[in-house]
Amino acid sequence: MEKYEQLLISLRRVIRAIDIHSRQLNKQSGLTGPQLMVMQTISQLDQPLAKDIAKEVALSPATVATIIDRLEARQLIVRTRSQSDKRKWHLSLSDSGVAILSAAPRPLQEHFIKRYQNLEEWEQSQLLSAVERIASMMDAQELDAAPVLLVGHIQPEE
User: Fold this and answer.
1) Which of 44, 92, 108, 116 is in Cβ range 3.0-4.6 Å of 21 for a Cys bridge?
2) Could you write out the DSSP letters of every residue in 47-113?
3) CB–CB of 92/48 below 8 Å?
4) Helix (H/G/I), strand (E/B), else coil: 89
5) Residues in Cβ contact with 86 at an 8 Å cutoff, skipping those fewer than 6 apart
6) Of 70, 8, 16, 62, nearest to 39 (Cα)?
7) By three-state DSSP, how is residue 6 classified?
8) pLDDT digits over 78-137, tens only?
9) Residues 6+ apart with CB under 8 A from 20
């Protein structure tokens, strides 16, 4: 077997592992990965604005706005108008949002991060460099992506 074939098989395994975890997340909680990530961020920050969440999760404001709209439609989050600036809306979890978030499975990246951090510094750098190179070879370095191992709706470029 050629090395490039072994590489493609390994990449496919990574994609499948992420996809399987994302399907389990959706089945157990009814949430997509990005929705879970936004809800976790809302719960961690004190009544954030949408722009705060976008910055925190490293997704575009347009992507986060779409996620927030969907979560609000499902009554999992609540928008509250700012007292100091009526143009701004603060976000918080509803009671049902808190319940769903507390029952949601742990993100796949937590296990990955632990293992990654146990590597020697040079191994971490080597692995990072190799994966960044792969992203570049796939013309994916500019895609909107957050630091989580989840498959979810990808907002098309405008």
Assistant:
1) 108
2) S--HHHHHHHHT--HHHHHHHHHHHHHTTSEEEEE-SS-TT-EEEEE-HHHHHHHHHSPPPHHHHHH
3) no
4) strand
5) none
6) 70
7) helix
8) 999 888 888 888 899 999 999 998 888 776 767 788 888 999 999 999 998 998 888 888
9) none
